[in-house]
UniProtKB/TrEMBL annotation:
Protein name, per record: GAF domain-containing protein
Native species: Candidatus Sysuiplasma superficiale
Source domain of life: Archaea
Annotated Pfam families: GAF
InterPro entries on file: GAF, GAF-like_dom_sf
SUPFAM superfamilies tied to this protein: GAF domain-like
Residues covered by the GAF domain: 44-150
Length: 159
């Protein structure tokens, strides 16, 4: 996708996510997942995992198929690594990363962006792509901006 088209779609999504009619974290989660999946065709699966104890639990998701990985221990896989480090994991070739937990045989690359609350990690945005090296700096920037939107619900139940 060309930069101008990506930026146009990113701006559309951010306008949607900043809509005053979104008054709960669940509505924001729905709008973010749906918007990312619909507006960015190189995103083949989009989900949000939330921290519950020592596990990441799958919240809302969009894709052609559900994943069997609805609960992931901290530190396991790419999602668990991002949770443990609090840093973005941008994997251009999942087949070359020994941490990768296969969800779909068609997945070639994955990006995981932490969602931080006032006291640290609370969840993450996880996106798969069927295109190798699908995610760049613009994806990281957009997903970081979306992750920061959840801060406005700090102190309220997120799930």
């Amino acid at each position: 996708m060309e930069n101008t088209e990506f930026e146009k779609r990113a701006a559309e999504l951010m306008r949607r996510l900043n809509d005053p009619s979104i008054v709960t974290a669940e509505e924001l989660e729905d709008a973010a997942v749906e918007g990312l999946y619909r507006l960015f065709p190189h995103y083949s699966w989009v989900g949000i995992y939330w921290l519950e104890g020592e596990m990441l639990k799958l919240g809302k998701w969009r894709g052609r198929s559900p994943t069997e990985h609805v609960a992931i221990p901290l530190g396991k896989g790419i999602c668990g690594a991002a949770a443990a480090s609090g840093k973005i994991e941008n994997i251009p070739d999942v087949g070359a990363d020994s941490r990768y937990i296969s969800c779909f045989i068609t997945t070639k690359s994955e990006i995981v962006v932490p969602i931080e609350g006032a006291h640290g990690f609370i969840g993450e945005i996880d996106i798969d792509s069927e295109t190798p090296s699908a995610f760049g700096a613009r994806d990281e920037e957009l997903l970081t901006r979306i992750a920061s939107q959840f801060r406005r619900f700090e102190g309220k139940k997120l799930r």
